[in-house]
Each structure stands twice: as C-alpha cells, then as structure tokens.
Specification:
The chain is an alpha/beta fold. The chain is built from 12 helices and 9 strands. A 5-stranded parallel β-sheet has the order 2-3-6-1-7, with helices on both faces. The protein has a two-stranded antiparallel sheet with strand order 4-5. Strands 8-9 form a two-stranded parallel sheet.
Length: 277
C-alpha cells in the first residue's frame, strides 16, 4: 500500500486513503508530499473538527462580511497549500454541498472564497482520507457520487497495523527517536523481547496507539535504561504485571488473587483509553 501510494505522488489526480482510524493515513499523506516534486507546503484540515460553515471558510477562505464575525478577508487552506498538497481528513463528514465545491477544485483547479463571486486559480494536489466505505455512502445518498468517481481513480486501502507486523519495529523505533529528540533523554533502541511483545499485540488503536505506548513507556523508563524492553511496556501488551513483583500473600500467588486480577483488568482498560485518546 505504501509503495503504491508513493507512486501516485506526482500525478495530478487526487488520492483517496481508506483505512481504520489510526492506521497512519496522515503519515502516508505526508510521505506522498515528501516524495512528490511539489515544493509548496503540506496543509491539513480535519472535517470532523469544524461546523459546516467554519469548514467552508477553513478550506476556501472568506471575504469580509461573508458571515457574522468575518471582519476581514481570510485566505483558506486551499490557497495556503498552493503548489503543494492539501490533506483533507474525514472527508465523509463534510456536507454534500462542500463535497461538490471540492469536486470543482479538483476538476477546474479554481476556488471561490465564501462570500466572493469570482474564481481564483490554485495548483494543489488533493489527498483525502476516510475510515468509511465511500461506495456505501454514495449508494445511500450521503456522499457525492461524482466526487467519489474522481477519488476512486487512485484509491489506497491502508491495512490496519495488526496486518502489517513488519512495520511495527520501524514505526516503534521512529517514535522512540522522536521522543529522544523532543525530550533529550530516553532509550536508544528496543530489545528483541520488546519488539516481540509489540508484534504479538493486536493494536486496536493502530499506529496512534503504538505511538502513545512508546511515548508512555519511554517516559516511565529509568533514566539509565539504554534499551526499552518488555518489562517497560504496559501490562496490556506483556500480559503480565509490570513493575515491582509482590510476594505471595497468605500462601496464594499474588498473580491469582481476585483483587489483583480485577486491578490488572481495570489498568488495561485505562491504558487502552489513554492510548486511544
């Protein structure tokens, strides 16, 4: 999927990235930009974060007086991305009217600011992402059919992390390196046991969850630790208690006491929620 996506970097057609939440569509969009010959910026907009009229203004810009609070002209993300790549995340959440406006950008390579009556040319490669099946939304009338036809020319289905085991060590080391660069400390590599533990986990939160786990484990690692190992990872990954092992209580193994098992289960739920958010 990655190699195919990168082969689309220099074609004018838009690229559609489909996959579960957290599979790394944002990272892949950035790689498409990096491998392209475009020298303009990489600009991102997330459809789920804004109301419709704000999203239209965010994408296309607006002129003074276009709506309440528009006290000056404002350039949109499409103009800001001129010569580069615009990444639209959560395209299925955009309204049909906004989808049609984006279709015009792709077909005619022009935009109209909100409240403005004349078009402005733009040279932007559009990459959009969704965690939905757009074909089903078209069938139910919730997605613009012509836009889907244009996007479907270059569709990349990004598989979940559980189906990309070979990517896990690469991504984990990248996140570990990023942690060291930001904080000036942390382990320099992962142990074989740590890698094996990461590869055995199902990663319901995909790449986003992996990054959170690595950041948390690296931050809790002892300062002198050179390698991040199995015992530094959350218990939900290692399937065993992490940290200090307590001795047996009243002849009953600590790991089999009901209170301990419930506590570990609660810890797992909390860690999964933190990783997902």
């Amino acid at each position: 999927a990655v190699n195919y996506a990168l082969s689309l970097a220099d074609i004018q057609a838009p690229v559609l990235l489909e996959g579960e939440t957290g599979v790394g569509k944002n990272l892949l969009a950035r790689e498409i930009h990096r491998h392209s010959r475009r020298r303009g910026p990489f600009v991102q907009v997330t459809c789920t974060a804004l109301a419709e009229y704000l999203l239209a203004s965010e994408l296309f810009g607006h002129v003074r007086g276009a709506f309440s609070g528009a006290d000056r002209d404002r350039r949109g993300k499409l103009e800001a991305a001129n010569g580069g790549v615009l990444f639209v995340d959560g395209i299925a959440e955009a309204s049909l009217a906004l989808q049609r406006r984006l279709l015009r950008v792709i077909e005619d390579r022009v935009i109209e600011r909100v409240g403005e009556g004349h078009p402005t040319p733009v040279d932007v490669k559009v990459v959009v992402a969704t965690n939905c099946e757009l074909a089903e939304l078209v069938w139910s009338g919730k997605f613009c059919g012509p836009l889907h036809h244009r996007l479907n020319v270059a569709t990349v289905k990004v598989p979940p992390l559980r189906h990309r085991k070979d990517d896990i060590p690469i991504l984990a080391r990248r996140f570990l390196k990023r942690f060291r660069e930001r904080h000036g400390r942390g382990p320099k590599d992962l142990s074989d046991g740590g890698i094996n533990t990461l590869e055995e986990y199902s990663w319901p939160g995909n790449v986003g969850e992996l990054e959170s786990v690595i950041q948390t484990a690296a931050s809790l690692c002892p300062a002198e630790a050179v390698v991040l190992g199995r015992d530094h990872l959350p218990g939900m990954l290692a399937n065993k208690p992490v940290g200090i092992r307590k001795p047996p209580v009243d002849g009953i193994a600590h790991s089999t006491s009901l209170g301990y098992l419930l506590g570990q289960r609660e810890r797992t739920f909390v860690e999964q929620a933190l990783a997902a958010t």
